[in-house]
């Protein structure tokens, strides 16, 4: 109908320019903060996990060392895998709550207030060329 075109134009004007968002300094800093935390931690955990798997597969005598009663070193290291997983999860949640979420919320707020609106950017560029 006749109203569909105006509704489409209004909906299209409200869409942010995500390339502009991704090229902003705030977004790059958020991505850097996330990656600098996640990648080293994930790499360290994978090394720890594969070390455990390799020890379990190739170091039977070492993993069979009795620590207390029938509890072996392999069992202790296996349980430490769970402890490590929960510890990393708690650490990431703390990091995200303290650093990532506030930065992401600020970017979201800018997007919702049309600071990254594609039509606003085009209009302001048109005003500058008209001067």
UniProtKB/TrEMBL annotation:
It holds the Pfam family DUF485. The chain crosses the membrane at residues 37-55, 67-93. Keywords: Membrane, Transmembrane, Transmembrane helix. It comes from the Bacteria. InterPro entries: DUF485 (IPR007436). The keyword Signal does not apply. This is DUF485 domain-containing protein. It comes from Sinomonas flava.
């Amino acid at each position: 109908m006749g109203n569909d075109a105006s509704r489409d134009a209004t909906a299209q004007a409200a869409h942010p320019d995500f390339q502009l968002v991704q090229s902003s300094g705030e977004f790059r800093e958020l991505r850097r903060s996330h990656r600098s935390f996640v990648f080293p931690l994930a790499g360290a955990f994978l090394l720890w996990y594969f070390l455990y798997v390799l020890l379990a597969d190739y170091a039977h005598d070492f993993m069979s060392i009795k620590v207390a009663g029938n509890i072996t070193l392999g069992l202790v290291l296996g349980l430490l895998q769970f402890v490590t997983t929960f510890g990393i999860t708690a650490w990431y949640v703390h990091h995200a709550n303290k650093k990532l979420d506030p930065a992401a919320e600020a970017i979201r707020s800018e997007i919702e207030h049309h600071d990254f609106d594609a039509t606003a950017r085009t209009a302001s560029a048109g005003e500058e060329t008209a001067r």
